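If you are new to this repository, start here. Below is one unmodified record pulled from the training split, so you can see the exact layout before writing a loader.
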Amino acid sequence: MKYSKPFMTKGELIRAGIPRELLEQAYADKKQRFAMKLNPHKKSSNIVYETEEFEKWRLKQIDIQRRMA
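And here is the target side for that same chain:
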């Protein structure tokens, strides 16, 4: 998938068609280094995703699911 910007907020990615649950799963992944809050001291701060690294993570998740099927 191609993204319009190198960094996108959670809302922008949802509008682009990425499911909210997938974005939340990606952010919660302890090994990821591509999603972060703009202000980590604010509980309600926007989450920003580095789209190139997120896409690599997303494709890896698809591969893992295919292997398990």
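Two things worth knowing about this chain: The CA atoms of residues 40 and 68 lie 35 Å apart. The mean pLDDT is 96.
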